[in-house]
Amino acid sequence: MAKSNPILINAIGNTISKLKNGAPYQWGHMGACNCGNLAQEITHVSKGEIHQYAMQRFGDWSEQLKDYCPTSGLPMDLMISRLLDSGLDLEDLIHLEKLSDPNILAALPESEQRELRKNRKEDVILYLEIWLKQLEKTWVSQQAAIKISESSKIYLSEVLS
């Protein structure tokens, strides 16, 4: 499960915005597909470079993620490491590519209760929007919990005075 944080929230929000405003989308292109568009935003690597890196090994995003080795030195693995550093995990990326995370699908509005198609730009945007709302909600809850925790601390200096 993704670790909610401002960097990831911002990257997903920017990816949604770019897709809505005409960013290239092509599911069969490693740099312009579901994961490719988010990877562009997080890593600041172009769709062409991402595709070039991916072609150094076999398979689509799902297969490359299964073969991920953080110490290989391969450009695709280095890029995946940067995605993981942003708060994502391998399962998040596999689910993104297939639009298959059960938590996100369960949150689909009633009017959209259907199977999302992994190669349909509108479905990718919908999936990302729901995921973004979940991450934002988690982030707000975490910040509120931190504030409550901080305000209820008893400091040793106060006890001794």
Your description of this structure?
- The protein has nine helices and no strands.
- The protein has 161 residues and is an all-alpha fold.
- The longest helix is centred in the C-terminal third of the chain and has 31 residues, at 121-151.
- The protein starts with 5 loop residues before the first helix and ends with a helix.
Task: Present the secondary structure layout.
Layout: H1 6-20, H2 34-43, H3 47-54, H4 61-66, H5 75-85, H6 90-98, H7 102-106, H8 121-151, H9 156-160
Provide a quick synopsis of the model:
This protein has 161 residues and is mainly alpha-helical. The protein is 62% helix and 0% strand.
Features:
161 residues, mainly alpha, 9 helices, 62% helix, globular
Order of helices and strands: HHHHHHHHH
**Helix-and-strand structural type:** mainly alpha
Radius of gyration over C-alpha positions, nearest whole angstrom? 19 Å
Strand portion, in percent? under 5%
The total of helices stands at: 9
* Biggest pleated-sheet summary: none
Helix content: 55-70%
Q: Termini separation (Å)?
A: 44 Å
How many strand segments? 0
State the low-pLDDT regions, or none.
Answer: none
Q: What best-fitting shape do the alpha-carbon axes yield? A: globular
